[in-house]
Amino acid sequence: MSGGSVSRSMSLLEVENLDVRYGQIQALKGVSLRVEEGEIVTLLGANGAGKTTLMRTISGLLRPRAGHLRFRGEDIARVGADRIVRLGISQAPEGRRVFPTLTVAENLMLGGYTRAPAEAAQSLKQVLLMFPRLEERSRQLAGTLSGGEQQMLAIGRALMAKPRLLLLDEPSLGLAPIIVRDIFRSLRQIRQQGMTLLLVEQNARMALKLADRGYVLETGRIALQASADLLLDGAIEPPTHGSIPLRCCQHRTIAGVDRAVRPGG
Description:
Elements: E1 13-22, E2 25-35, E3 40-44, H1 51-58, E4 66-71, E5 74-75, H2 81-87, E6 89-92, H3 104-111, H4 117-130, H5 132-136, H6 147-159, E7 165-169, H7 177-192, E8 196-200, H8 204-210, E9 213-218, E10 221-227, H9 228-234, E11 259-260
Parallel strand pairs: 3-8, 3-9, 6-7, 7-8
Antiparallel strand pairs: 1-2, 1-4, 4-5, 9-10, 10-11
C-alpha cells in the first residue's frame, strides 16, 4: 500500500534535537532518530518515557519547542495534523480512538478522507482483505467490537490514507496474548508490502523480533539505539508494565551500536 521510494541519501523521517514541553514540564529533551524507507523501527521505554509524546509530535498534534522534524526532506515540525496526513504519515493511536457510534465501514472511510472516492474504495477493499474480521463486521457499530477488533480497525483506518509512514502506538495494549499474535501477524503482512513502520510497543520482545532497529527512551531522552537483534539480546527478562530492562545501557558503547549513552550522558 505504500508509495514510491525516496533518495538513498535521505532518510524517510529524521528527528533532530527535538524538545517538547507540556507547560513547564519538558517531555522530550534533545531527541534524535531516523527511519529509513521500508524498515521497521521500534521505540521502547517505561511508561512516561516520552514515547507517545514523540508520536504525537510527529503526527502534528504537538508542536516542538526546538529541534527539527523532517519527512522526505521537508521540515514538518510546525505543520498541522491534516497536512501531515496528506504528506504521507498516518497513525493508529494509543487507545485505538475509534468512533463508537459509526459503523466499521464508516470508520474506515473516514481514514481515507484525503483520497479521491475511487482510490478510497480501492483502499477499503485492500484493508478488508487484510482484516477479514472487519469485513464480517463492516455494518456493525465500532463501539460494539472487541478490543482486538477495534485495534484492527484503528490500523485499517490509518492504512486507508495510503501512508508512506505508519505510526503505531501500543497496538497490543490491553489485548489477550492470542489477539496480540493476530495483530503482529498483520504487522508482518503490512511489512511484506513494503510499508515503513514506527512502532511504540510495551511488548519489547515481540516488537524487537519484528523490527530492524530500536531506540530506548528514558525520561525524555534517547538512552540507546541499536539493531533490534542487539537490543533483543539485552532484554532477557520480559518487560513489566511497559518497561524494558536497560542492562544493555550500562556501558557507553556496544559493538554494532550507533550510539549508546546513559540518561543525562
